[in-house]
Amino acid sequence: MVDIMDSAFDALVASLVEGEREHCLALVGELIAKGRQPAEIVTDGIEVAMGALDRKCTAEQFNLLEIMLAGRAVMAVIHRLFPGDADLPNPRATVIAAVLEGDIHDIGKSILKILLTGAHIKVIDCGKDTPVAAVVKAAAESGAVAVCLTGLISSVIPLVRQVKPALGAAGLSHVKVLAGGAALKQCTADALAVDFVGQTAFDAVHYVGALLDGVYAGH
Amino acid sequence: MLAIERLQRTILRQSCDRPPVIPQIFAHAAKVAGRSVDDYLASAATAAECQLAAWRHYGLDAIFAVLDLTIEAESLGGTVIRHPGIYPAISDPPFTPDRDFSRLAPPDPATAGRMPAVVEMVARMRAGVGDAAAVIGLVQGPMTGAVQFVGMQRALFLAIDEPDRFVHLLDYATEVARSFGSAQLAAGADIVLVFDPAASPEIVPAGLFRELVGPRVAHLAASFKQAGAKANWLHIAGQTAAILPLYSSFGFDIGNVDYCVDLDTVLETLGEDSLCLDGNIKPLSFVTDSADSIRQTADALLARFDGRGGFILSSGCEIPPEAEEANVAALVAAARDWKKGRR
């Protein structure tokens, strides 16, 4: 029985990584019919699949299409397991994701949102073309542990530099600021006045995971 | 030696007085000319003046007849959002994925949107430089056109969910590029850069590029050669080492190498392939670094390609509009001072 269940989860993980949305939903239906709980499917299916996708996508082999397909399958499964709620229940933490004012390219943010959700982290999406003040407000209201900023164009860099001081002025200096995207990943963290710059969306997921595990606590 | 001759001899690996230097300067030309980015974007005449000012100021081998990257999508009815001081961006694409792209005709470059402004810009720049520098036009490549015409996420999902419809979309984007690029060549462009960052292996698998995008950029290259292009240039950003060896077979003479690409890998992968490379200094370093640093990096690049030849000194992608002029000047000086490159 255990072997059958293991293979059912293995099949779900493989199908999620391949982005086979309909097949994933069918497999989830079978698991539920066999009495598996949604929380198990998240832990033994979605989170394992996101780990496998992470290992597959190195900085040299980061493929947006494959990640988007896997992300679409993951979100479909989440919606099946928790109808009407875009987030997983009992998230490990809350993170803000935003594209700052002047930049409306948000595909990077969308990918990040999917990966963080798959890692059991609640994402408050501040959208694109977003003022710094709106990001700070969202962080204050949500108790977020981090703000993730993605940027495709270099003109947002001066705004990125404002986020950490603005959080500090609002009494949120403990909130980490992460940056990534085509323009921002060319910079160092010091140059952007942020805590971390990721080369891929997975780097941000690793950073937040380590933050929650206490690796970066207080620093 | 005339710049276009220098460029063509470099492509053919023949001896040159020095390596060509062609930084990707679009709206940075406005800063050189003492104009605003908004001025540059608003008028073909002003943009052409700015490009000519940049050519004179830096002593470039080529200048780019580029306003911004939303021309095609806007001409098809897409909505473009504008913020002061920065490039416009597409906020709503012109089509939904369910459109029958096999029945659409490309827009007329003589009348559609700002396409005539770009064609006018080419003509003004051609008249301004005569034969002293190359004039390079630009079209969105098939994959980038497809992404711009229906939106990134929709285009990528369409490729998987409805491959036949996606192929029609790619074909349509190719036809838009062919029509627009041909008009730029007729107006006096020497080369039309096929700009296809969405075809990067960071966006789509290399196999999709090879099987679906490749034949369509090959069609563009053949069409542009037939229309008088002096060379074909393919620009794809990001980690392109896996697909660069395909460019020559698709009819391209020049391929850019972005800053993040490992040159050892590229040179090993290319082997005896004759593809001329351009690159690959990090674009943001023209904003953040010193002129000395740019010079050192440029010298190192020129030394690295001294044995191979077939190299155009450039940035890995577009130089940001706010770049420091001294940094661009340092790049150009490195090529002009280079004495050893004789291939």
Please give a structural write-up.
The complex is a heterodimer of chains A (219) and B (343). By secondary structure, chain A is an alpha/beta fold. Helices cover 54% and strands 10% of the residues of chain A. Chain A is built from 9 helices and 5 strands, in the order ααααβαβαβαβαβα. In chain A, strands 2-1-3-4-5 form a 5-stranded parallel sheet, with helices on both faces. In chain A, strand 3, helix 7 and strand 4 (176-180) form a beta-alpha-beta unit. The longest helix of chain A has 19 residues, at 38-56. With 343 residues, chain B is of the alpha/beta class. Chain B has one domain (3-336): TIM Barrel, CATH 3.20.20.210. Chain B is 46% helix and 12% strand. Chain B has helices at 3-11, 28-32, 37-42, 44-58, 71-75, 115-129, 142-150, 152-161, 163-186, 206-226, 263-270, 285-288, 291-304, 325-336, and strands spanning 62-64, 79-81, 89-92, 134-140, 191-195, 233-235, 254-257, 276-281, 311-315. In chain B, strand 7, helix 11 and strand 8 (276-281) form a beta-alpha-beta unit. The A-B interface holds A 19, 59-66, 68-69, 72, 101-105, 107, 110, 129, 153-155, 182-183, 186-187, 191 and B 81, 83, 85-87, 89, 91, 152-153, 156-157, 159-160, 201-205, 208, 237, 239, 259, 282-285, 287-288, 320-322.
Number of domains of chain B: 1
Total number of helical segments of chain A?
9
Question: What letter string, H or E per element, gives the SSE order of chain B?
Answer: HHHHEHEEHEHHHEHEEHEHHEH
Poorly predicted parts of chain B: none
Helix content of chain A: 40-55%
Number of strands of chain B: 9
**Overall 3D form of chain A:** elongated
CATH class of the largest domain in chain A reads Alpha Beta
Q: Report, as a whole number of angstroms, the end-to-end distance of chain B.
A: 14 Å
Domain count of chain A: the total is 2
Report mean pLDDT of chain B, rounded to a whole number: 95
User: Main β-sheet of chain B: number of strands, strand sense, barrel status?
Assistant: 7 strands, parallel
The level of helicity of chain B is 40-55%
Overall shape of chain B: it is globular
